[in-house]
Amino acid sequence: MHPAAPNINGFTEMNALVPPPHMSFNLTRWFAVLSFVTITVISVALALIVSHFLTREILDRDAILTAQFIHALADSEGQHANLGASLSVGEMLDDRFDPVKAGISREKLADVREEFLDHINNLPDVLLANVFSTERRIVWSSNPSLIGRKVGRNDELDESLQSRVVVAKGHTDPSHEREEQVFLGEPEEFFIENYIPLYSSKGEVATVIEVYKEPKSLIQSIRRGHILIWCCTVVGGFLSYLALFGIVRRAAALIASQQQRIVESETLVVIGEMSSAVAHSIRNPLASIRSSAELGIEGDGESVKKNLRDIISQVDRIGRWIRDLLVFSRPLAAEMEPVTLERVLRESVSSFGTQIESAGIRVDSSAIAPNLPPAHGNQSLFAQVFNSVISNAIEAMPNGGTLRVATEPGADPSQVVVLVADTGAGMSPRQLEQVFKPFYTTKRNGLGLGLALVKRIMERFGGAIRITSREKEGTEVRLIFKLAR
Fold first, then answer.
1. DSSP run (H or E) holding 332
2. Which stretches does DSSP call E strand in 70-229?
3. Is the per-residue pLDDT at 441 higher than 80?
4. What is the largest CA-CA distance in the chain?
5. Can you tell me whether residue 186 is helix, strand or coil?
6. Which of 89, 256, 384, 474 has the most CB atoms in a 10 Å sphere around its CB?
7. How far is CA 436 from the centre of its chain?
8. Mean pLDDT across the stretch 268-275?
9. Distances (CA, A) of 93 to 70, 213, 316, 485
10. Which of 321, 235, 260 is nearest to 456 (CA)?
């Protein structure tokens, strides 16, 4: 029984850890919908509660002021008529009141009633004023047709009679259905109904004054208050939504990045275990084959020597593959140090002098800025980055071309960009999408780890790599380095 071969083509086990795109949970989209609905519902509920509270408070305050004014009128009329402590204007308004028993004249009673009710009738913004006895009968009204009528169910009137409190109610519908609501003038859209109890000399409710008003200035204040509440609610809800959405979007991006790194780390663990096993198994036979080939070269026969040289070349190529595989599978644990990019870049270009000359490539390095600030990273790893990128550029121009190496200021003052451009065959959009994937290569003798390792090194030190390319026009690679502090 042979041991199972490792799966190096698709990494099937590792791909199973990542859910398919159509099954993944989109945190940003769900939060955008749910937070919008939640914030909208809460904002509308708060606006309605605050609007109702504001309206209620304004109506109650207006009712209290109206009651204080009417009580002050009653007290003033009582003092003016010298009624004393044994009588009150409230009980004198009831048509069942007997002036003879109370010890006053009918003329005085009529004068007190007429003067007090005249003040009530001339209150500002009044649509209708009624005076109720304790039997729920209208004993006086600014609309004479209602006098003597006994009303049916009226919860506010009953509350005022029984609880001895001022009752206020606002009506947003100008229509009115109660039999006592026969206004002298129709309200436009909003009117207030106040019930104000007047007391007898014994402190009991003697009569209740019902006042219907349409205070336009008060209505305007309520309307402005509602507009302000709704505007603040909308703006506050929108800003809260934007703030929360921004936080969650940032968190979702971090989670996705962390998830990708976890998947990559797990992939590297599999690759590391596989590459260690493969390297151990292959290196010893390769060493024996190479040694035998070197000994065979010393013999006679040109054809044999040629074949042996091919064997040595292929063995060396397999050895480089194994080395690259081991480097890629290991964590990047290099010491941080300031790196002089100009020197490392020029040394990398010089190391390819023979290949550049044999391929007939012209090198343009005039745009490398001198005295660049040191970059944050590791010199040997950055040299590996430059070597890989420059090697790809040279291989893309087998029949000659121009290799341009330059430095540019970064989008951020803390960054510097190294540009490596060639005039080679370029890449298609499909190839650009796959260019950083491990083991993806268009080279016949390549392993597909060069750019993937470059990307890892750049991100390890806070940098990035950007590639733009067009078929038959060439490729531009921008290496973004973070400057050392």
1. none
2. 126-133, 138-141, 167-171, 191-199, 205-213
3. no
4. 157
5. coil
6. 89
7. 31
8. 61
9. 13, 21, 120, 91
10. 260
With H, G, I as helix, E, B as strand and everything else as coil, classify residue 87. coil
CA atoms within 13 A on the CB side of 327: 20
pLDDT tens for residues 171-194?
A: 655 565 666 667 766 777 778 888
Q: Which two tokens stand for residue 198?
A: 């007047």
Q: Which of 277-286, 363-372, 415-424 has the highest mean pLDDT?
A: 415-424
Q: How far is CA 268 from CA 320, 355, 376, in A?
A: 19, 32, 25
Read off the pLDDT of each residue in 227-252 and give the average, rounded to a whole number. Answer: 89
- Cross-strand partners of 364: 404
Q: What is the pTM (predicted TM-score) of this model?
A: 0.47
**Domains of the chain and CATH, by start:** 43-214 (3.30.450.20), 243-331 (1.10.287), 333-482 (3.30.565.10)
Q: Could you tell me which residues are beta bridge partners of residue 404?
A: 364, 421
CA dist 96 and 88 (Å) reads: 14
Alpha-carbon distance 306 to 294, whole Å?
Answer: 11
Q: What is the pLDDT of residues 399-410, one digit of tens each?
A: 899 999 999 988
Burial of 140 (C-beta count, 10 Å sphere; 0-12/13-18/19+): buried
Q: Residue 247's CB: how many other CB atoms inside 10 A?
A: 11
| pLDDT tens for each residue of 351-396 | 888 889 888 999 998 888 888 889 988 888 888 899 889 988 998 8
Contacts of 270 (CB under 8 A, 6+ apart): 11, 13, 14
Per DSSP (E only), the strands in 55-189 are 126-133, 138-141, 167-171
Q: Which residue has the tokens 């204007």?
A: 89
Instruction: State the chain's mean pLDDT as an integer.
Output: 80
Tokens of 362: 């012209």
Name the DSSP class of 463. Answer: -
How many Cα atoms are found within 13 Å in the side-chain-facing hemisphere of 418?
32
Structure tokens at 104: 């006053």
At position 341, the amino acid (one-letter code) is L
pLDDT digits (tens, 9 = 90+) for 7-34: 434 333 334 334 444 445 677 788 888 8
Task: Give the pairing of strands 191-199 and 205-213.
Answer: antiparallel
Helix 341-351 with 379-395: angle, nearest 10 deg: 40
The residue among 390, 391, 399 whose CA lies nearest residue 361 is 399
Region 153-173 average pLDDT: 76
Cβ neighbours of residue 335 under 8 Å, at least 6 residues apart?
Answer: 378
Neighbouring CB atoms inside 10 A of 157's CB total 21
